[in-house]
Amino acid sequence: MKRHLTLLICMMFLCQWMHAEDGSLLWLRQKGTAATSITSNKTTQTTSIAVNELKNAWKGLPVSLIIKKNKSLCKEGFMIEKKDGNIIVSSPTDKGILYGAYHLLRLQASNPDFKTTLPIIENPTYSLRLLNHWDNLDGTIERGYAGQSLWQWDELPETLSPRYETYARANASIGINGTVLNNVNASPQILSGPYLQKVKALADLFRPYGIRVYLSANFASPMVLGQLDTADPLNKQVIRWWKNKVKEIYQLIPDFGGFLVKANSEGQPGPCDFGRTHAEGANMLADALKPYKGIVMWRAFVYSPNDADRAKQAYQEFKPLDGMFRDNVIIQTKNGPVDFQPREPYSPLFTAIEHTDQMVELQVTQEYLGHSNHIAYLAPMWKEFFEFVPATTLKAIAGVANIGTDINWCGHPFAQSNWYAFGRLAWNPSLTSEEIADEWLKQTFSSKEEFLSPAKQIMLQSHEAVVDYMMPMGLHHLFAWGHHYGPEPWCAIPGARPDWMPSYYHKADAQGIGFDRSSKGSNAVAQYPTALAEKYNQLDTCPEEYILWFHHVAWNHPMKNGQSLWNNLCRHYDRGVQQVRLFQKLWDQTEKYVDEERFYEIQSSLKTQMRDAIWWKDACLLYFQTFSKMPFPTDMERPIHRLDDLKKVNLGISNYECPDEELLNRNR
Ligand code: GCW
Predict the structure, then answer these.
(1) Across the strands, what pairs with 397?
(2) Residue 553 pairs with which residues in a beta bridge?
(3) What is the pLDDT of residues 386-422, one digit of tens each?
(4) I need a labelling partner for 102 at 20 to 30 A (CA). Which of 272, 294, 628, 639 fits?
């Protein structure tokens, strides 16, 4: 009897714990009230999911889901209308129906007046909307800040974690239709027979949600898995090996999406190892995939430690190859020319490549934006990119995922908003950052204006705040060695690659600071279309947010506001710090409207963000002051650290004195 009682109490605790607001429900939190009629004119696995989702969460009029042709809809598009007291969701495909159902639920949560806006027609802007997981087969995630990999490789294919289904639902609800399961630093093993069985299990599970599976391929796979002595893309045996491998994949996964390849970049193998070009490498894989309608996403993230400005190298390597790629190859380029820095100008490849399909790679995981400790809502940053690169330039869009085994999926509760925003912008890049924040907040927390107003203010100002306290005015790559979290603008490791050292990027000296990429310097400006090139080339016309990206500017140079560059730099860092102080106050205003768990979690992470912001400001300004020799503006918050102490904070590898090349490269 006593044992039963203890069991009962334990179960009650467990239930309570299970209902705690741990963020695991993401934005999929709505619950329906009555048993409204939900019908569909055809039944497939996908329409059944749509029906169930509506049965569980819809509170309004009866809904009919109708698959039918409609000239104004593309395959994945849908229409929502009101007819005779019913809501009709129609689409040419069951996938479109599923997207329509999720959209209806989104409208229910975020726009009480949506019925007055019907009919609504939605077509996705990009046909391929992919997540890229940088997940390794050992369960770790490169640049992952939310626990281990979701994919339980050792349990697959037999055991399917219930999280896979929630993952698929979440993606489908925001229109993501593809996922690259493994890291671009790819283990060849992913293409081995046993792993393909595991991949198949995931593909089968994701299929009804409209999600195709893709894999990152290691270019040397024929050597590692096939024991060939070369991976030369023009070698007959190599070609045959890939053809057979692709055939094997499609026998298991008939709708397999294709390969993502990081080649000849940061030590990864590639066609250049065999004297071939990126085009020759990509085309060989493309030919193998072509009969099955598979694609190759070939990354343009290439740079080597040579004399050329790193920001110029992708263009230099890929521009001459434009037009030489097969039509099922897409060049995948990061938004900026260097590497996911807090703010970069767009990569000039996007406007230079004219005869090859292109896609952008955005980074959802906050590698350079405070990991999962800082609030940095990234829609405003991605919108900046879309201002320069119109939707029509791109065939597809990819986001490096921020998802892991953490109970709340993304580490920080607000980091979920970046997964959400990525999906929404991939569907429709003309949505505003505010619209997306509004939708996400209402679905994830509360629709109360008293909550929304401060929470939205934090989100919308958060990216600029991070830029301000980390790297304002076009500064970039001032990160500590090893993990890209804290500041180390002074970092100088003997023997390490110069283009991995902060001084390569900030170039601070007695005269000034910044990388001269004007026509007098590396001339990276010339890679942009003429009007932009001219604008960026002149100190007085270059936008101030990029000024130190394109120019080496004298410390006492008068800026637009009449104050010196040094004073402006100080003010940006200070403003970033003051913004986080404001975010703390704004968040405290939401206490009444948020559950305890998430309220305190966010309050506490804002303390970390606050401390980090001060650390960044003090480290960068105290260090740069050793060059500028200028005082801080009198009304600015004073440093609380000593530079010498900050220099002792060892965030990186332990063997600072005697690094060997291999270790240095591995730990970066
Ligand atoms: O941003 C850098 C990261 C590497 C990453 C690389 C890439 C997957 O620091 O961790 O490797 O870019 O995008 O290939």
Answers:
(1) 129, 360
(2) 513
(3) 999 998 899 999 999 999 999 999 999 999 999 999 9
(4) 294
Which residue's CA is minimally distant from atom 13 of ligand 1? 301
Ligand 1 pocket, Cβ-based, cut-off 6 angstroms? 134, 142-143, 184-185, 262, 266, 301, 339-340, 367
Top mutation candidate among 134, 183, 219, 364 for ligand 1, by most atoms within 8 Å of CB:
134
pLDDT band at 3 (very low <50, low <70, confident <90, very high): low
pLDDT in tens, 434-485: 999 999 999 999 999 999 999 999 999 999 999 999 999 999 999 998 779 9
CB 260 within 8 A of CB 184: yes
Q: How far is the CA of 392 from the centre of ligand 1 (A)?
A: 27
Active site residue 367: yes
Q: Please report where in the chains the tokens 């306290």 appear, as a residue.
A: 469
Degrees, nearest 5: CA angle 655-657-659: 60
| Continuous segment of H or E residues that includes residue 568 | helix 565-588
Q: What's the rounded Cα separation, in Å, for the pair 400 and 30?
A: 27
Which candidate, 179, 176, 210, places its Cα nearest to that of 98? 210
Please give the single-letter amino acid code of residue 668: R
Cα–Cα distances (Å) from 371 to 138, 338, 453, 465, 595, in that order, read: 21, 19, 25, 15, 24
CA of 368, closest atom in ligand 1: 1
Cis amide bond preceding 633, omega within 30: no
Segment (H or E) for 90:
strand 86-91
Set 280, 367, 384, 488: catalytic member: 367
Q: What is the DSSP string of 51-83?
A: HHHHHHH--SS-EEEEE---TT--TT-EEEEEE
| Length of the chain counted residue by residue | 668
If one counts every other C-beta atom within 10 angstroms of the C-beta of residue 592, the result is 10
Best probe residue, ligand 1, of 218, 367, 481 (max atoms within 8 Å of C-beta): 367
| 3-state SS, residue 332 | strand
Q: How far is the centre of ligand 1, averaged over its atoms, from the C-alpha of 14 (Å)?
A: 40
Average of per-residue pLDDT across 67-86: 97
Residues 6+ positions from 475 with CB-CB distance below 8 Å: 505, 506, 513, 514, 548, 549, 620
Q: Rounded to 5 degrees, what are φ and ψ at 137?
A: -70, -15
Output the CA 126–ligand 1 centroid distance in Å: 24
End-to-end CA distance of the chain: 59
CA of 143 to the centre of ligand 1 (A): 8
The pLDDT score that the predictor gives to residue 364 is 98
Of the CA atoms within 13 Å of residue 299, those in its CB half-sphere come to 31
Tokens representing residue 62 in the block:
């009866």
3-state DSSP helix/strand/coil % of the chain, to nearest 5: 45, 10, 45
Considering just the CA atoms, what is the radius of gyration of the chain in Å?
A: 26
Give the separation between CA 243 and CA 479, rounded to whole angstroms: 43
